[in-house]
Amino acid sequence: MLIPEFQYEVTLTEKFLRRIPEGKMEWRPHPKSMTIQALANHLAEIPQWVIAIMEKEELDLDEYSASADKRIEEMVKLLREGASSAEAALRKPDEAYQDIWKLRKGEHTLIEMPRMNVLRTLAFNQLPHHRAQLGVYFRLLDIPVPSTYGPSADEV
Known about the structure:
156 residues, mainly alpha, three-stranded mixed sheet, 5 helices
């Protein structure tokens, strides 16, 4: 049941990634904000989180390194390839979704809950959250915001 929802979110995410102008990769709205490049890479790698949640028992953030692609096509490729592998990882029996999964930073446990809850919190809900951030960046740069769950003010 999750796969069609995931596919839809990935399609929307690709639409946002393709809207990024290559010349704006280092732009950020505030010194504490991510650059467009960092935000776009994070969006592109979220399917990798789905794979980690479904294929591993835990993830240690001390062993994690963020994607740092500089070109949109590389990001889209990461998103698509990750999404394909994530869809395969989601084809597990229902019982697997109840297994406890853990997110750690070294010895400190950050999250410990059933995979289904982690999927929603760290993966599925992250896609619209970070797309919305990117939409704000677009608005501030006067880049038309793509439609998502309905038309945007730029695509009526």
